[in-house]
Every structure is written in structure tokens, then in C-alpha cells.
Amino acid sequence: MTVSNESDEPDVEMLQSAVATGDRPDGPNAVSSSLTFGWRALLKIKHVPEQLFDVTVFPIMFLLMFTYLFGGALAGSTGAYLQDLLPGILAMTVVFITIYTGVTLNNDIDKGVFDRFRTLPIWQPSVIVGALLGDAVRYTIASTLVIVLGLILGFRPEGGVIGVLAAVALLLVFSFSLSWIWTALGFVMRSPESLMGVSMMILFPLTFVSNVFVDPETMPGWLEAFVDINPVSHLVTAMRGLMHGSATAGEIGVVLAMSVALVVVFGPITMYLFRTST
Amino acid sequence: MTEHELTGNRTEFQGSSTPAEMTSSEPTQSPPSPTPAKDDRTRNRSFGALDDTALESKQVTDSVPLAIETSGLVKHFGETKAVDGIDMAVPAGGIYGLLGPNGAGKTTTIRMLATLLQPDEGTANVLGHDVVRESDAVRSSVSMTGQFASVDEDLTGNENLRLLARLLGYSRSRSKERTAELIDAFGLTEAATRQVKTYSGGMRRRLDIAASIVVTPDLLFLDEPTTGLDPRNRNQVWDIIRALVDNGTTVLLTTQYLDEADYLADRIAVIDDGRIIAEGTPSELKSSIGSGVLNVRLRDPERRVDAERLLAEILDAPIEIDSDPVALSARISDAANAANAFEVLSRSGIEVTDFALGQPSLDEVFLALTDRPATDELGEGGNSR
Predict the structure, then answer these.
(1) Is residue A47 situated within a structural domain?
(2) Which residues contact A265 (CB under 8 A, 6 or more apart)?
């Protein structure tokens, strides 16, 4: 660390005039404060670009690895497999990346920045909502990479541009909602490491024991039952439908309903922990 | 006007640190008999309840609107009672000091008042609003600078202030103006576009305080604002605090340093083991715990035995003989006696090269108030002088 020169001194006269302004702006509304926290998240990406590592390397690695590993065996050719796999891999990578939301939050709590935010007269959830909006930018970067790489490898969505965009939008909504689990855990866990551990324990079964890689009908009945209720399976089904132009309102509706349920349950828990954490 | 009265008290106290002015000090009562904290049912005991100063200050407390009023505040962390029944009345305007060693409950108290922690028992009223039921109203007129810099290290100084200005409702352009104004006033112009992680401790603390006054608060909480700062940076922070108070902001600050409380605070509450064990103006506090340590150095080491005998007679206190052959010291309770001692030594032809009355340390405050020193685990603060 460089220690800065301290030739600058506070100036008492300027101080007095600075504190004498009787400005009392009305507090910002919920949208404005959330967007401001989103801006903070973007500033952090600007100053610490290394944090984009996970949203760039992961998706590329996953897509290449699983396409060439399973493609020939499961669908006869990598090209055929990719049509089904890409929406699934996209969902899987972004869902995986959501755990960093909790990790970032956990770091913030340690630093004392939250104390400041908690004493501000703002709509308190905007601290978290804003952070999640910033994360949405990261998810978009990851999605773009996966889709562009997929197109290069031979992915041909029948739903066209609209279908692909709709699928990504649905994915962002679901990820935003799922993140509230990690924000809640971010307040409960003592360290980023333990948080990662617990998150992985939840995410591995959730993403792998799903319909991302194979058709659930080939699985034993009890496993198929789990896969069928797994939210990630529903998400992947809806995304495949949207990308290939065959999605039903029901498939999309289920995902949206699950998203709402996640926010309704974990939103208040997060905010309770936010208010009461020491 | 209130502020003026309160300031008067402080000035009176500052004078007593030089021998010349000690003679003008009012004769004071001897220290209160030490009372073990555990049995102390009469918390908030006022210093020198019998002398005029106390009466006067009581009137001040009565006539001035209160910025903070708490009753029976309690906070547990698991088995530990961090705050154990705090009753506090902080007048509006001026600086109120919470003085105590590490772990005494200062931070917990201040966090409850700033709505960061919910009390387990008791009530707290801040600027007329209950901290639990009306936390939003409290938040809109208070600000807090925590013990650990609560600015974002990854962002620049400018970005930190602009972020807060936006969150407080300033428009985009006004938040830029306000940021520039504060950055200049706090002497951070050169560092404004650098990430905070490159700042020195003093700069960071200044930015932290600037962040707390983006909108000038009615009440500012400062949790150990100068801990870890060198004297120069400490003085800068003191100047900043004074400028704020001159503008009408009430400041509640916690500190481990008696001299900081002396210098800044209009009233001090001494806190130990989660309780307030004494409260009053700095002069009341001083007179009740004695005037501190008298250090004497002689020209001629041969005369030390004589000096020791004379001092013991006049001061009526045990004299400590230093390993330095010309030095003596004594803990004294009455500053006026020290002035007499100086005269007697001169009259007896004992040449004195140094005669200084040191301020009592936090250790001595605790010794006087609780009959035990600020314990070791409570650390460095106690030995700060």
C-alpha cells in the first residue's frame, strides 16, 4: 500500500461553510436508491475487474467441457446434443454464479460499510436489490458469452432472437429471486469460505440432478421424482421451450411462480437478518 | 446560549493543568469513597453533588432539551451483558463523551442509539423519537461514524461521497457539487480520485467523517474517532468535530482517552462493565478523582531526602522515589496543595527544575471510581498517558 502524502489539511473555514448548508433533500425513492446501489456494484466491477473471472471462464469451460464430453455418447453428435444442452448449461452456469452474491455481501458485512447504509433513511431492501441489479449485469455477460460461443459451435435456436432474449430474461428473473437465499445465508454464515461450502452443497444436487444433461426418463423412479420437482429442471424446460419456440404459458408460469415464492420467503428473512445483524 | 454555558465548564477545567492556575481552583472535596461497581445501586451518581458546580450543571441538564434520553438500556450477547442498564441524558448542542476502556459497552450503546442494534430491555429516545418504534425518524436526523472506517475501500473518495449524496436524495449534479465541497474542506483534494484502500489512517478517518455529514446531521455519533491516529491527525479530527458543534450539531463520542474527553466534551459519562459509573462535567470528574500525579525533579540529588519529607508532610500522600536520582512523584487529590508544595520547596532552598502536574490517566479514573484499575484485557487505553 502506498501511504499518501498528507500535505492536504482540512480547512476549518471551508468546513464551517460546508456544514452550514442547511440542505435537507427528501430521501430518494425505492427505485432511485436501488439503482444507486446498482451503480455501486458497477463501480466495484470497474475497480476490481478480476471479479468478472467467474462469469467469463466458468461458462466457457462448462459449455466446451460438457458438449464434447457427453455429446457423442448421449445424442449421437455434439451438434445435436448442443441444441438441448445449451439452454441447460446457460441456466446451470448462471445459477452457479449467483452464489457470489452471498460472498460479496458477506465481505461487505465484515467491512462496516453496511453500518453506514443501515443508518440511512432509505428503503432498506434497496441495499440488496441494488447489489442484485449489479449482479444481473454479470449474469448478462455470462449469458452473452455462452450464447455467442454456442452459436459458433452450431447452436441454432428455432425461437429466433426474441426466443433467446426471452429465455435469458426468464433466467435473470429466476437468478435474481434465487439470490435471496444466498443473501440470507450471507448474513448467517461467519465467513465467505463456509458460505461457499454450504452454497455448493445446495447447488450441486440442484443443478446436476436435473434435466440439464439427460432425459429424466432414463433415471430410477425416485430420482426422476426429484428431478421433476427440481426448480432448475422447470427453468431449463421453460428456457428450452423459449429458445426453440415451443414454450407453453404453463412452463413459463411455473418458473415465475417459483421466483415469486423465493422472494416472498427469503426476501423478508434477508431483510430481518439485515436489520438485526450485529 | 446553552452551548456557551457548557463551554464555560470545559474551559475552567483546562486551566487546571498548569501549576500557576491550580491555586485558583476551588478547594475540592476528597475523592468519593470507592464503591465496587457490582453493588452500586445508585448509578449515574453525579460528581461532587454537594458543590455549586454540580447544582449549576444540573440546572443546565434540566433546562435544555435533550438530544438523547435512555432508561434502563440492556443488551446481551449470548451470556455476556454488554450493556447493563444505562440511563443517560444528553443535552442538545455541544459534545457528550462516553469514556471507558475497551469492552466497557461504549460501542454497543452507541449502536443501539444509532438504530443499528435493538436493545433487549429499556428505552432510548433520540431527538424525540424512539429508536425501536420510530427508527426511520431517528435515521433521518442522525449520522454515525463507526470505529472501523465505514467507507468502501474499493471505491475512490469521490465515489464514496457521491454514492452517499445520491442515497440521501441529492440530484446527480448537486451530489457532485456537494462531494467537491466536502473533499476540499476535508483536505482530500489530491486523493479524491484514488481508491480508499490507498489512503492513510488519518485520511480515511477524515473521509469517514465527511461521509457522515453529507447532509449535516442534528446528532452525530462518533465511535472512537481518534483511536489509532497520530497526534497531528488527531488534532485535525478534533478541529473537524469542533466546527460541526459550532454549527449546532450535537456530538456523542466514545473514547478511551481521558484527555480527549477533557478537551472536547462538555459532559462525560464514565462507562464500565456496561454501566455508567459516573457522570458530570470534566471539572466535576477531575475534582472527584483527584488532580493526578505530581512529578518533581530537583537540581541536586542530595536534597531528595529533604524534598521527600517536606512533600509527604504537605501532600499527605505517599511519595514515590524514582530510579532517576533527582525525581519524585506523588498521587495527589488536591491541586491547591501542589501549589503549596512548590512554595515550601522553594522556601527551603530546594531547587526544582521541573514541577508538573500530570493529568490523571484513565487507569486512575477507574481506580478512583471502582477501586480497581481498568483491567489488563481492557488494554492499551488505560495506559494511554
Answers:
(1) yes
(2) A180
Instruction: State the nearest Cα–Cα gap between A114 and chain B, in angstroms.
Output: 8
Q: With contact defined as beta carbons under 8 Å apart, do A19 and B247 qualify? A: yes
Query: Distance from B23 to chain A by nearest Cα, in Å?
Result: 35
Instruction: Find chain B residues with C-beta within 8 A of A3's C-beta.
Output: 200
Using CA coordinates, name the residue in chain B closest to A15. Answer: B185
Of A15, A27, A32, Cβ closest to residue B243: A15
DSSP structure class, residue B380: G
A7 touches chain B (CB under 8 A): yes
Amino acid of residue B246 = D
Residue with cell 471505491: B155
Nearest 5°: phi and psi at B25?
-65, 145
For residue B119, give the amino acid letter: P
Considering the domain boundaries, does residue A17 fall inside one?
A: no
CB contact under 8 A, A121 and B139: yes
Chain B positions touching A122 (Cβ under 8 A) are: 167
Distance from CA of A188 to the nearest CA of B (A): 16
Of A16, A17, A25, the CB nearest to B168: A25
* CATH (residue range B292-359): 3.30.70.2030
Instruction: Report the residue count for chain A.
Output: 278
A120 and B CB contact within 8 Å: yes
Query: Does the B2-289 domain belong in CATH 3.40.50.300?
Result: yes
Pairing label, strands B352-358, B292-298: antiparallel
Range of the domain at A172: 29-276
Measured distance CA(B249)–CA(B262) in Å, rounded: 19
Whether A6 is in a domain gets the answer no
Contact B190 A8 (CB under 8 A): yes
pLDDT digits (tens, 9 = 90+) for A86-137: 999 999 989 988 888 888 888 888 777 888 888 888 898 999 999 999 999 9
Cβ contact B174–A12 (<8 Å): no
Q: Please, what are the averages of pLDDT over each run of 10 residues along chain B (385 residues)?
A: 37 35 38 38 38 43 78 90 91 92 89 90 92 89 82 93 94 94 92 93 91 91 90 90 90 89 91 89 75 82 88 82 84 76 87 81 68 48 34
Furthest CA-CA distance within chain A: 78
Asked, for residue A1, whether it belongs to a domain, the answer is no
Q: A78-97 and A99-111 helices cross at what angle (nearest 10)?
A: 20
